[in-house]
Amino acid sequence: MQGLIIENISNTYKIKTENGIYDALARGKLKKDEIIPVVGDIVEIQKIEGEENKFIIEKIFERKNYCKRPKVSNLTQMIYIVSSKEPKPDLLLLDKQLAFAEFLKINAIIVFNKIDLDKKREAKKIKEIYQKIGYKVFETQAKERKGVEELIKILKNNVNAFSGNSGVGKSTLINAIFKKDMTQEGEVSKKNKRGKNTTTAIKMYEIDKNTYITDTPGFSTFSIEEIQSKDLAKYFKEFVKYQKECEFLDCTHTKEQKCGIKKAIENGYISKDRYQRFCKIYEELKEKEARKW
């Protein structure tokens, strides 16, 4: 039978097929070939002879894409959840995630959750920056279902992954979308205002025909070492059209004077704050590249 991996717990995979949902293990040869099944994979499973209701994954069909963080495949859309308050918006993390989505050629959507806690409306200013770049940005108050119906419309006919650091409200938002408790909701530590991670496994939920949400564990760090430092500007999409105005073809956009991107910042076309985060990410990648040698 052919099916879709919708969950992975301790290397036991739940496979959704036309005939129902089955548990399966991965055949050893897949691991030898260094192909490990992940949620989102289309696979072929076979019943183990002499074993009742026991199946094995025989084949993984070619992936459209593969994301290491979170470990999912065949995505068409990434939904990056950012908390408006508690924990405060981590825009460095968001910019890394957006660059990674551009690298993978996956559509990226930004959601500012917990808007009720943002009394000073600071998220509105951030929202305007990303909308100007060209990203679709939504505001939600998950527990009250504010903004949820608008978000559901953008999820339609997509394989979506919800991603973000711990405590931003991914699980609460998924529960609001389904109007019932699908996942365990976490809380924010009162001591340090950081999220407590409640999602430990990657699980895919079906909203509608051809429409899925994947809930993923929260995290505090996010690495994008697949991107070379010299290529990083390609994945900050508002930078691209100004790169041709740089004096040097190998311009890093950090130290050079006659740089098209720096000129665009001076003219107000590029956010200075986002550029500064670009420089931080660039330096992180440079350091990692230097350590490799």
Describe this structure in words.
- By secondary structure, the protein is an alpha/beta fold.
- Helices cover 27% and strands 25% of the residues.
- It contains eight helices and 13 strands.
- The strands form two sheets. A five-stranded mixed beta barrel has the order 1-2-3-5-4. The protein has a two-stranded antiparallel sheet with strand order 6-7.
- 33% of the residues are buried.
List low-confidence stretches.
185-199
The H-and-E topology, N to C, reads as EEEHEEEEEHEHEHEHEEHHH
Structural class: alpha/beta
Ends apart, CA distance between termini: 46 Å
Number of DSSP helical runs: 8
Helix and strand topology:
Layout: E1 2-9, E2 12-17, E3 20-26, H1 28-32, E4 42-47, E5 55-60, E6 66-67, E7 72-73, E8 77-83, H2 91-104, E9 107-113, H3 122-133, E10 136-139, H4 148-155, E11 159-163, H5 170-178, E12 202-208, E13 211-215, H6 240-243, H7 260-266, H8 272-292
Helix pairs in contact: 2-8
Annotation keywords:
alpha/beta; 8 helices; 5-stranded mixed β-barrel; 293 residues; single chain
Task: Produce a short descriptive summary.
The protein is α/β, with parallel strands linked by helices. The protein has helices at residues 28-32, 91-104, 122-133, 148-155, 170-178, 240-243, 260-266, 272-292; strands spanning 2-9, 12-17, 20-26, 42-47, 55-60, 66-67, 72-73, 77-83, 107-113, 136-139, 159-163, 202-208, 211-215. The chain is built from eight helices and 13 strands.
